[in-house]
Every structure is written in structure tokens, then in C-alpha cells.
Amino acid sequence: MKKKGKRQTKSGKFISVKTKLLGIILPVVILIVTVLTGLSYIVSKNVMKENAEELLKTSVKGQVSDIEAWLGQNLKSFQTAKQALEQMDFTEEQLQSFLNAYYGFDSNFPNGLYMADADGRFYCAEALRSADLQKPDEMENRALVTQSEWFQSGLSRVNMGFTNAYTNDRGEQVISACGMLRTASGNVRVLSADMSLDKVSVYVNSFVKMEEAESILVNAEDNTILAYRDTGLISKSLGETGDTFMKAVGDRILRKDVAVAEIDGNMTGFEEVEGTNWVLVSYVPAKRVYQDLNHIRNIMILFGLVSILVLTGLLERIVHIVIHPIKYLTGVIKSMTDGDFTVHIHTKCNDEIGEMSRCIEKFIDTMCNMIASINKVSGILHGQADSSRDVSAQMFSASKTQNQSMKELNETVEQLSVSVNGIAESATTLATLVAEARDDGEGVSSKMSETVQISQEGKTAMQNVSAAMQNINNSVRKLQAAIDGVEKASEEITNITGVIGNIADETSLLSLNASIEAARAGEAGKGFTVVATEIDKLAKTSMESVRHIDSLVLEIKSSIGDVISQAGDSVDNINRSNELIEDAAETFDVIFRNIDTVGTLVQQMIEKVDKVEDEAGNVAAISEEQAASAQEIAASSDILVEQANHLMANSETVTNESNELTNSAEELSEQIGVFKIGS
Amino acid sequence: MKKDYKKKLGTVFLPVAAVVLLLGGCRERDAATGNNAKIYYAAIESGDYYEGWASQLQEQAKKQGCDFAVGYAEKSVETQDAQVKSAVSKGCDVLLCGLVSADIATEIKAAAGDVPIVFINQAPDDVQLEKDYYVYVASDEYMAGRYQAEYILDKLGGKDEINVVILKGPKGASGAVGRTNGLKQTLKASGKKINYVFEDNADWSEDTAREMMEMFLKTGRAVDCVAANNDDMACGAVKAFEEAGVDLGSVLFLGVDASAKGCQSIADNKMDFTVYQPMSEQISAAVEVAQKLAERKSVEGIKGAAKDGKYILVPFEKVDAQNVAQYAN
User: Fold this and answer.
1) Do B289 and B265 fall within a single domain?
2) CB neighbour list of residue A107: distance below 8 Å, 6 or more residues apart
């Protein structure tokens, strides 16, 4: 998976093996086919060119040898005739008939042989002479003869040889075969025969052996054309023709560069004609030479294309067939990568791919088994993890409970310890208190005795008080009678003050009337008014004094009331006190008896307290021991609590881990679940 | 991937290379070491001339540690063919061959099979030669003609127009053609007006040359020099001129070969110039080339080897009155 991802990210996009293979092989194949075709073409071209050159060379050679043979044959004829002339030593008539016999004898030199000596005497066939209309002056004629091309040329050799091309005195383009005649007399004689250049042309052209090939016979000395298909150009120099090809040929001849070459689109061959200065130039249009080549090229291109197509198709098929199992395998591996191990591989291949398939099949089997066992194991693991988690949970809660219990225990123990301590303290306090109680008891006992004594004395005092009380009662009754007299007096006073008050009021009203009367009297009334006012004032002051006496009387009345009630009360109280004192005396007796009882009880209590003291001391000692023990217990239970804490923490960890284990087991089984292994 | 590619290429090229080697190996079969090469000389005929060649060749071959055998064909094509076949079957490594006729080169090559051939004495056609395999060892005929022309131009340099008589060997003979061409082309290149007042084949013959010159002299044409393809014809010309009472000093007589007669003539102040054809150099060159071919090596670097590897042209030496003494023996 990872690898695939990596490869994909690395190479960017997926390229199939087939594409790659074809991508490599096809260009190579195409290149090879192209190169092979190209090479074949080049080789063919070279071979064809060489062949063409060879053919041209051979053709030129053949032509030249034909021309040579033709020339040689003619030369031989001339040579034979010449030899005959040299050896027969003819008379004039015989010579004439000999020359006559050669006239029209051979179509190559229809005019036959002719001859001249150094003096310009000219001998030829009679037919030729008669055909010659011109009869120039004898002497002039002689001079012309000795200056003629053939005569001059003939002087330069003994064996018959050819002159350059020239126009003879009949206006014909000719070459002459000529040579000095050996004579018995020792006279210089030149024998000659004309050969028409047209004739040579016919021969040159008829010897052309290659298709479309043409030939030019050139005099290498001055580049004049001796023979050519276009007879109009004969005797002209190659340079004068105006043809670039001809000009180039001429240049080459001058340079003696006579190798086969392509000149101006013509494949050209040169060959010297032996025994002459002639060069035969044969040429064939290069197009013609390469015509077949083009054909071959087309065939080759076609062949190359067909080969490439066939090879491409073939290769595609082959690669397809070879790659097919790989494609299939790729599918299988892809499924495997996705976790599907239910795939099956059927292969009959006996190559690497087959081997690969078999290996993968084996691998799938192994993986299936492995995954199954992992699955199983993970199930078991899962169960175990679950139970482990349960157990650990239980343990945790147990330990938690235990912890709690321990804490409680600890607290209890502490409380116990405190209690025990309290007990010890209490016991100690108790002992002290008991001691004190005994002391107090003893004090009580003595105080009791004193109390009995005092109560005795109190009883006597009580009886004295009762007598006094009787006296007081009598006194009060006398006082009460006195007070009643006072009260009657005060009531009479009140009545008198009342009458005074009424008089004052009437006085005030009279004064007011007097004032009003006085006012009416005016000035005369004035003095009266003053008296009226003074009387009013006196009335009013009288009123106030009356009122004051009233209130005083009232106060005395209430005070006397009080005294009477108080005296009554006192009497009551004294009566009551008398009774109480009698009760008290009785009570004193009871107390007396009770104290006596108490005294004995206290004695008994003191005895008991002694006993309690002893017991309390014991209890304190025991309690102290108990306290010590309780502290030890507390310490131990502290350790226990600590351990319980550890235990709890551990069991919590165990729980967590077992939880994780469970999770892992679940995860494992989940992941394993991805793999499909069939049944 | 690249490795596979190489492998593939290898599998393609190995068989190809093997085939090429097998095919190419055919010729390599008999490659010998030059020191003990077996040389067979197929001579044209017996007689002083070719036996002289044979003895000198043998001497040279022995000097080089080579086996040497000779057969004389007595001008018979069949005999030469049989001799060559027999020599090849006896395991000779290289042939020295004086062709009875230039036309039988193909036949001899066929008879020789894989054995390389050094042609001497007789020039085969150019097309029959093959670089480093069928090689022609000869004197440079063209140079002989050129030396003649140079001598003429040297002596007659003052003239604008030179009248030349050429006496040639037999029609088509390689020596005659080469020497004549060398002469004519060098003269032409001088730019002077050259009149060939007489030009004929005297066929190496002194008498023919003499007769032709007698006839020529009757024409009364002017002549400045007589260039003959060999000394004999030059001597014949000298005689004709002597008889005609022409002052030999006014005419240059040139030959080729530096033959005893020619040298004597020069010493006698009749002939003026000849060219020495150093036979010993041809012989040592022939043996050297034979050794190279036996080893299937290139003739490149051998003195006188042409660029095309088909010719070994041994240079001539100029002989005139100044140095004729050292050639007259």
C-alpha cells in the first residue's frame, strides 16, 4: 500500500508494462527497420550507381573498341591498299585503275583512295575527278593539294593514320586516313582516303549501348566535335556549342580528368580512342539511372512501412499475450492489497509469470491461514481482555471498599484511642474527685453536727419571735383606731374648703360686674374699677389657697389609707410569720432528723468512695495501656490504609490497562475484519 | 532496463558479428608472416630477360627470408593458368605475375583464389587491380615521357615553336602509351607551340625507326628533336639522320631504357638523353610488396606507392652526357 502510494507519487501517473514495453521496443524496431531500409537503400543506390557507372564505363569502352575496331578495320583496308601500292610499283595506268577500283568499293570511304606527291600531282578515281566540276588551274591546284590537311598530316607518318576533322574541297565534313607511301623512286607520296564525319557520327551513335545514352566523339587536341547525334554541331568546339554540359565536358577533357562523373545531371564517361587524339564521351541522364532506384526506393519505403505495421501488430499481440497474466496478477494483487484474499489464481504458464502466480497463490493461502489464526487469537485475546477487565474492575471496587473500610477502621481506632484516653483521663479525674468527695464527705459530717446544734438554737429563737409577734399585733390594732379619728377630721376640712371655694367664685363674678359698671361710669368709675380688680385678685387667691388645702387633705387621707393598709398588712404578716415560724420549727426538727440520716449515709458513702478510688486507679492504668494499644492499632491501620491506597491505584491501573487491552483487541479484530478470507 | 536493452542489442549483434567474422575470415585464412612468405613468380617466358628477373627476384626474396619458386609460361595462357593453380595448391602465400597477356588477368586472379597478386612486367587493366590485393609494380612510364619533355624544354627553351618527331612503341603497348602521354602532356603544359612533324609507331624497332626517319627526312620538314619511346628507335633515328647528313648536334635524340646501345650512343655524343629504368629497384619493390600482401598489410608507405593502393611506380633516373658513364656497363 505504502509502496504503491510512493510509486504513484513518484512517477506521477500509472503507466502499464505493456505501454512501457511497446514504448521501448516499437521505437527500436521502427528505428531498426528505418535504418535497415535506409541502409539497404543507400547500399542499393551505391551499388546501382556503381553498376551504372560500370555499365557506362563498359559501354564507353565497348563503343570505343567498336570505333577502334571500325577505324582499325578501315585503317587495315587502307594499309592493305597502301602495301599493295608500295609493293606492286604500278605504272600510271595501273595506278589509275587501282584507284578506280576503290571508288565506291567501300561505303565507309565511298570516294576511294587518292594520292598526291610532293610536287602536288594528284591521283584519284576517274569517277571522282569527273564528278569534280571545278577544274582549277593546274599549278594552283597543286599548291592547294600539298597544303591540304590530309597531305600535311600524311607527311607526319608512314603508317596510315587519321587527320583531324576538316572540310574537304568538296565541302564535306571529313576525316582522312593518310600516310606516306614507301616508293621505290624515293618520291614523297601521300596516300589518303576520306571518311565522312556523318558516317562516323552514325557509327558513334549506333554503338551507344545504354538506353537513352548519347555519345560525342571529341578531338582532345582542340575539343572539336567529331561525331554527335546533332550533326549540326560537328566540327564545332565543345566550348562554342553554348551548352553548359558540353562546356564542362570540354573542361574535363582539357584537364585530362576522365573519370566517370555526374556532369550537369548526366552521368558521363570518357574513353580515349587508341591511336588517335579522340575521346569518346558517353553520357546518360542521371535521372534514367536513378529511375529504377526511385522504384526500388518506393518499394523499400512500402516494405519498411508494411514491416513496421506488421511488426507493430505482431509485437502488440505478443506483448499483450505475454503481459496478460501480469495484468491478471495485478488485479489479484490489487484485491489482495484491499484485503480480499478470496481471489484465486489459475495459471498454466510455465515461465516466471507462472512461477509468480503460483507463489502469490501460495502466499494467499498462507495469508488466509495466518489471518484466520490471528482472527482466532484476537477473539481469544478479546475475551481474555474482557474478563481481565472485569476481574480488575471487581478488584478495584473491592480494593476501594477495603480502602474505605480501612479508613473507617482507622477512624474507629482513632476514636477508640481518643475514647480510651478520655476514659483514662476520666478515671484519673474520678479518682481525684472521689478523693475530694471523701474529704468533702468528712467535712459534711462535721458541718452536720454544727448544723444540728444551730438548728437547736434556731428553734428556741423561733419561739421568742412568736411572742414578740403577739406584742406587735396589739400595737398595730391601737394604731388603727388612731388613724380612723384622723380620717374623720380631714373629711370635715374638705367640706369647709368647699364652702370657701364657692364664696371665692361668687366674689370673682361680682368683681367682674363691678368692673363693667365702673367702665360705664367712666372717670368717675375709675376708682371703683381699681377696687373691683383688687377684690377679684383676692377672690382668686382665696380659691388657690382653698385648692391647696384640698390637695393637702387628700394627701393626708391617702397617707392614712396607706398606713392603715400597711398596718393591716403587718398584722397579717405577723400572723402569717407566726405560723411560718411554727412550721419552721417543725421543719427544723425534720431537718435535724434528716441530717442525722445523711451523716450516716455520708459515712457509708465515704467507705464506698474509697473502694471507688481504688477501682478508678485500676481503670486509669488499664485505660492507659489500652490507649497505647489503640495507638499501635492506629499506626498499623495507617499502613494498611496506605497499602490499600496502593492496591487501589494498582487495580485502577490494571483496569485501565485491561481497558486498553480490550480496545486493542477490538481494534485488532476490526482490522483483521478488513481481510476477507472466505470460508 | 538499460541493462536489458544492452542484452537485447547484444543478442542481436552477436550472431551478426559472428557471421560477419566468419565471412570476413575467409580471406584471412592464409595470412602469413612476411618473413617466411612463399612467393611464386609466374614469368611470361624463359630466356635471358625474364630469367634475369627471376634470379634477381630470388636473390632479393632470400635476402628477406622468403621461399621463392618460378614458372615460365612460355607465352601460353593455359600454361600460366596451370602453373598458378599448382602454386596455389602447394600453399604459396603471394604471386608475382608477369601476365602473358593483359587480357587474362581475370583468369589468373580466379586461379589464384584468395592469394594476392603482385603484377610485374605486364600491366593489367586498371579495373583488374584492387587496393592492397592486386597491385602492379612497374616503372612510372609517364615519368619517363615527362623527363624527356623536360629535357627538350630545357635544351630548346629559347624557342617558341618546337618541331617534334615521336617514335612510338607498338600501338597500345603500355610503355609506349604512357611515355608518349607523359611527353605530349608535359610539352603541352609548357604553353609553347609544339608541332608534331612526325609521329608513328616504330614498334620498338631500330630498323623501322630508321626507315621512317629516312622517309620523313625526304619531306624536308624542320625538326628540332626526335623523342623515341626506347633507345633502339632513337638509335635508328640517329642512323637515318647520319645517313642523310644532318648535323646530329642540331637535333635532340631522346630514348628510354638507358640500354647499353643507348648509353654508348650518348657517350658517342649522338643521342642526347635517355631514362634509366632501374630494374633492381623494381625487383626490391616487387618483393617488398609481395611480403606486405602475404601479410595482408597495406602497401601504404612503400616508396612509389600510389594513393589508390593499386600501383607501385618505381621512378626512372635521368641519363645524359653528364652521368652516362655510371650507367654504361
Assistant:
1) no
2) A199
A196, A191, A265: which is closest to A226 by C-alpha? A196
Q: Between chains, do B171 and A274 touch, taking CB under 8 Å as contact?
A: yes
| Half-sphere exposure of residue A629: CA atoms within 13 angstroms, side-chain side | 9
Residue A180: its chain B contacts at CB < 8 A? 215-216, 219
Contacting residues of A for B199, CB less than 8 Å apart:
156-157, 161
Whole-Å CA distances, B121 to A456, A510, B285: 207, 224, 13
Domain shared by B146 and B272, yes or no: yes
User: Cα distance from A665 to chain B (closest Cα, Å)?
Assistant: 46
- CATH code (residue B90): 3.40.50.2300
Best probe of the B interface among A180, A253, A279, by most B CBs < 10 A, is A180
SS3 call for B311: strand
Q: Spell out which residues of chain B touch residue A256, defining contact as CB-CB under 8 Å.
A: 185
Question: Which pTM value belongs to this model?
Answer: 0.54
d(CA B323, nearest CA chain A) in Å: 33
> Domain containing B136: what range?
34-140+279-314
Q: With an 8 Å Cβ cutoff, is A254 touching chain B?
A: no
- Does residue B127 lie in a domain region? yes
pLDDT class of A3 with cuts at 50, 70, 90: very low
Element (H, E) at B218: helix B206-219
Residue of chain A minimizing CA distance to B222: A156
Cβ within 8 Å, pair A161-B200: yes
Tell whether domain A47-297 is in CATH 3.30.450.20. Answer: yes
For the ranges A106-110, A314-318, A446-450, A648-652, which has the lowest average pLDDT? A446-450
Q: What is the pLDDT of residues B21-79, one digit of tens each?
A: 444 444 444 455 546 789 999 998 888 888 988 999 999 999 888 999 999 998 898 99
Contact B197 A156 (CB under 8 A): yes
Query: B272 φ, ψ to 5°?
Result: -110, -30
ipTM of the complex: 0.72
Tens digit of each residue's pLDDT (9 = 90 or more) over A628-637: 777 777 777 7
Buried b (16+ CB within 10 A) or exposed e, A235-246: bbbbbebeeebb
Q: Which residue of B has its CA nearest to A220?
A: B185
Residue B123 and residue B186 in one domain: no
Scanning every residue of chain B, which has its alpha carbon at the shortest distance from the alpha carbon of A183?
B215
Based on C-alpha coordinates, what's the Rg of chain A?
93
Are B133 and B176 in the same domain? no
Based on the structure, what is the number of domains in chain B? 2
**B87 neighbors B40 (Cβ within 8 angstroms):** yes
Judge whether A185 is closer than 8 Å to chain B, CB to CB.
no
* Kind of pairing between the strands at A173-181 and A161-162: antiparallel
| B246 and B308 housed in the same domain | no
Nearest CA in chain B to A146: B219
Q: Is A158 on the interface with B (CB under 8 A)?
A: yes
Distance between B112 CA and the closest CA of chain A, angstroms: 24
Q: What residues of chain A lie within 8 A of the CB of B212, using their CB?
A: 158
Do B258 and B310 share a structural domain? no
Express each pLDDT in A284-327 by its tens digit: 888 877 777 788 888 888 988 898 899 888 888 888 888 787 78
- From B41's Cα to the closest Cα of chain A, the distance in A is 31
Q: Domains of chain A: which residue ranges?
A: 47-297, 362-672
Cell numbers given for B289: 610488396
The average confidence (pLDDT) of chain B is 85
| Angle formed by the axes of helices A17-88 and A197-206, nearest 10° | 140
Cell numbers representing residue B88 in the block? 596455389
Contact A24 B185 (CB under 8 A): no
How many cross-chain Cβ pairs, A to B, lie less than 8 Å apart? 44
Same-domain pairing of B75 and B169: no
